[in-house]
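Title: Comparing notes on inverse folding

I've been comparing how different people in this forum approach sequence design from structure. To keep things fair, I'm posting one structure and asking everyone to reply with a full sequence. Here's the target:
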């Protein structure tokens, strides 16, 4: 049943003892946390390792079924629903950006392809990959449940190693992302877009915040992200519009207002140009 708002979950809703890192078995997961069956956002990252199970996970416009072992990635502020069989076998690791960044810098998570906006949020595993990842989850399991010196430091290191292993599966090409001033500026731009896309839709606003000219911002976005600055802003607005259309019963007019459009006709024109369909038609098709 849809509502006019989407529940936002915090890590404290899962872990009462640690607000930055959470680890658990997926067996009986829905019974312990029934609210995950409804559309919700979370302000942290989750990695689900599903060995064998029946069920379905929905993340934005993806519906993920389990005909083979999979890893599912849920990023902050995606809208998701989790419906797993009570006897599902697998593990979940959830963590905040703060937890990871206390050892690694704030930009390190951007190095992982599966954390990019709009990317496919799952990867299928062959038998070797499954067994290989199982080892890392067992190490994490032991450390998380033990009372040991420097436990948090070890968990943070294990998490980084696990993310590197997942990157090798998700994007097997041997390409090392370079960190330079242009790349960092584009990442800073994307973070500003995440904060302000509802109120500010013109690249000139972000260029001013970044102390560069709009032309320079556009140039580095093309070279580093293969998109214009305007494309990046429009994509973020479109993703949010699709989430609201699919997961809430807000009217088209209410969604237009929520996203900062002056009138509904402008929003409809914008949405149709980005998706080649109207908001009404997108909502109708998404309900099937």
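Reply #1:
Here's my take.
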């Amino acid at each position: 049943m849809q509502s006019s708002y989407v529940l936002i979950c915090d890590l404290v809703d899962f872990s009462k003892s640690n607000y930055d890192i959470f680890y658990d078995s997926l067996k009986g997961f829905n019974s312990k946390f029934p609210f995950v069956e409804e559309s919700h956002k979370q302000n942290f990252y989750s990695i689900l390792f599903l060995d064998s199970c029946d069920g379905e996970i929905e993340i934005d416009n993806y519906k993920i079924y389990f005909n083979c072992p999979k890893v599912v990635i849920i990023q902050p502020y995606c809208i998701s629903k989790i419906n797993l069989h009570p006897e599902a076998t697998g593990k979940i690791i959830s963590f905040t950006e703060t937890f990871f960044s206390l050892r690694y810098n704030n930009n390190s998570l951007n190095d992982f392809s599966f954390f990019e906006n709009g990317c496919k949020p799952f990867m299928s595993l062959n038998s070797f990959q499954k067994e290989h990842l199982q080892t890392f989850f067992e190490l994490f399991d032991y450390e998380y449940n033990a009372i040991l010196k420097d436990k948090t430091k070890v968990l943070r290191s294990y998490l980084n190693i696990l993310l590197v292993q997942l990157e090798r599966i998700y994007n097997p090409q041997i390409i090392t992302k370079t960190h330079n001033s242009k790349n960092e500026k584009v990442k800073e731009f994307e973070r500003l877009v995440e904060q302000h896309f509802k109120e500010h839709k013109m690249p000139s606003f972000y260029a001013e915040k970044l102390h560069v000219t709009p032309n320079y911002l556009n140039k580095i976005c093309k070279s580093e992200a293969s998109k214009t600055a305007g494309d990046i802003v429009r994509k973020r607005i479109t993703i949010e519009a699709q989430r609201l259309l699919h997961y809430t019963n807000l009217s088209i007019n209410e969604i237009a207002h929520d996203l900062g459009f002056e009138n509904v006709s402008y929003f409809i024109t914008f949405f149709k140009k980005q998706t080649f369909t109207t908001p009404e038609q997108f909502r109708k098709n998404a309900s099937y």
